[in-house]
């Protein structure tokens, strides 16, 4: 599965300090290989991007929940939908969700390739037509689905709303009035489970490889990324 990147992380990215994934350090090579080889938990299948802790504090499963992002700087609270969907439904759901944002959107590519901690580099592209964006993203479906060091966010600052497919392959929607997004999740038969826990809320391990690093550079070029933000 390529080199492994072990860390705890908050679903809202780099707000919490990194902590070592110590449980993996006590596994034999055989135990680690066996654990990383398990992708299916009941009817739910993980992508290659991430694996849960060996003790399975959180058992991966499908569902979505309502949450709130608290912006301490602006003293604001933003409604959030967070969803986990099985492997073969990740891209279809992501594409359906971003269509709600409109005909022209901004895009952020997030990468932690080569970073030793939970730090990320974000690359920003403004004003791209939705059909062009979707066509490009389908060309990089493998990268976006299976690389544990690549995330993407699509946003319309005029709404303002944002749809994110993060490094863990969770679908996260931010903004006011998220009813249309919730309808899409319901139409996809993703259950609402407001007490569910996500793989990000316990120890877990990320995976990437040289092939995905190269593909990320290709995607960056295709999208014409011209700026950075942290």
Sum up the structure in keywords.
230 residues, alpha+beta, 3-stranded antiparallel beta sheet, 25% helix, 30% strand
How large is the count of helical segments? 6
Mean pLDDT: 86
Q: Tally the beta strands.
A: 13
Report the principal-axis shape. Answer: globular
How do the SSEs run, as a string of H and E? Answer: EHEEEEEHEEHHEEEHEHE
The share of residues in helices is 10-25%
Sequence stretches where pLDDT stays below 50 over 5 or more residues: 1-19
Write out the strand line-up for the largest beta sheet, numbering strands in chain order: 5-6-11-10-9-7-8-13
Structural commentary:
With 230 residues, the chain is α+β, with helices and mostly antiparallel strands. 25% of the residues lie in helices and 30% in strands. It contains six helices and 13 strands. Strands 5-6-11-10-9-7-8-13 form an eight-stranded antiparallel beta sheet. The protein has a three-stranded antiparallel beta sheet with strand order 1-12-4, with no helix packed on it. The longest helix is centred in the C-terminal third of the chain and has 14 residues. The N terminus is likely disordered.
